[in-house]
Design goal:
mainly alpha; 11 helices; globular; disordered N terminus
Length: 279
């Protein structure tokens, strides 16, 4: 009977606590910074995840009638959209929270990033036009998948790729009430993670350019490995003492949710349909 209750709880409750997920999202934001600085400097000036910037460049190139740049913009936007669609399908019926299906989706993201790193290495860091488009497509699709993972993670208003809305919410919240800055600390750490990732990615491009895309792949793979290890540990704990583990999870999640709700991010709803996501 206890085993059945533990199995039911495992199905209903997320594999990871809000606190653990929040920390993993900082690493994902760092990976996004690494990947975007690589794409924008090495693959034709387009981002893997910043669709606003890509659409602006695409619009400019429509007027300029530059077929090569038009192709790059279309591939970046299309790849991201396909990544979002592909990541959404296996998670569309799952409740919010980091679950076993999240791991499966992230495996695809890691494989795409490994493909980008492998393709970059195979071409000696000098891919031709067609190869560059292929690498850009894979990078954008991986970013789309990461966006879905973040939205589905259960962290309100979390973002790990584009953070315009996060910065808007943090600054606006501080202006309204300076005491709310602490409540938005998680958003600040993701902003710093993205910035740090861009700095790190640029540094690797300078000293070891062939390894630049491998950095993002390694960071995302580390998130996946950590999530799997922690979720397995929590499952073992649940099977031994499901009541005690559930109470601890409930206390941690309530505390984290109260901090997130206290921040009351403003501006994210318009961009993400009122259900925390990222740009």
């Amino acid at each position: 009977m206890r085993g059945a209750r533990a199995q039911d709880a495992e199905f209903v409750r997320p594999d990871l606590s809000h606190r653990a997920v929040a920390r993993l999202l900082v690493v994902l934001a760092t990976a996004s910074g690494c990947l975007d600085v690589f794409c924008v400097t090495q693959l034709g000036g387009f981002f893997a995840s910043v669709i606003t910037g890509n659409l602006v460049q695409l619009g400019h190139n429509i007027v300029a009638m530059d077929s090569r740049l038009l192709s790059g913009g279309s591939v970046a936007v299309g790849g991201y959209a396909i990544g979002v669609a592909g990541g959404t399908l296996p998670l569309r019926h799952a409740k919010l929270g980091w679950r076993s299906r999240t791991h499966l989706v992230m495996v695809v993201q890691v494989l795409l990033l490994v493909g980008v790193a492998g393709g970059w290495w195979a071409t000696g860091g000098r891919p031709g036009f067609a190869a560059s488009l292929t690498l850009l497509f894979a990078a954008a699709a991986a970013s789309g998948i990461q966006s879905v993972v973040t939205i589905s993670s259960g962290i309100p208003h979390a973002t790990t790729t584009y953070l315009t809305g996060s910065l808007t919410s943090i600054v606006r919240g501080v202006v309204f009430d300076p005491h709310r800055f602490a409540a938005g600390a998680a958003g600040v750490t993701r902003l710093l993670g993205l910035l740090g990732g861009a700095v790190l990615g640029a540094a690797v491009l300078r000293v070891a350019p062939l390894w630049a895309p491998a950095l993002a792949a390694a960071l995302v793979a580390s998130v996946l490995a950590t999530a799997i290890a922690v979720s397995r540990s929590r499952r073992r704990l649940r099977s031994r003492s499901p009541g005690e583990d559930e109470q601890q999870d409930h206390r941690e999640d309530r505390a984290d949710q109260h901090r997130a709700e206290a921040a009351e991010p403003v501006g994210e709803e318009d961009e993400h349909g009122g259900r925390g996501t990222h740009q």
